[in-house]
What does this fold into?
Amino acid sequence: MDKNVLDRILSGLADKNIRFQHMRRLLKDFGFSERIKGDHHIFYKEGIEEIINLQPLKGGKSKSYQVKQVRGIILKYKLHGEA
It folds into this structure.
């Protein structure tokens, strides 16, 4: 797991500068399963209520509101303790 990416997401200071592939890898490292339909990457995990639906921006970045959603789920379920 890339601790640097996790730290950047948790800090809330780089929401517009998180690469989409880094966020995908982080969710997979946390044990999320991924289903892809078009440009929608849908992540789900047993024990996690929310389903995460991500779409990349042109240029390979993540959408800032989706970074906030992922941060909220990481904190709500204390996933950062698994890192």
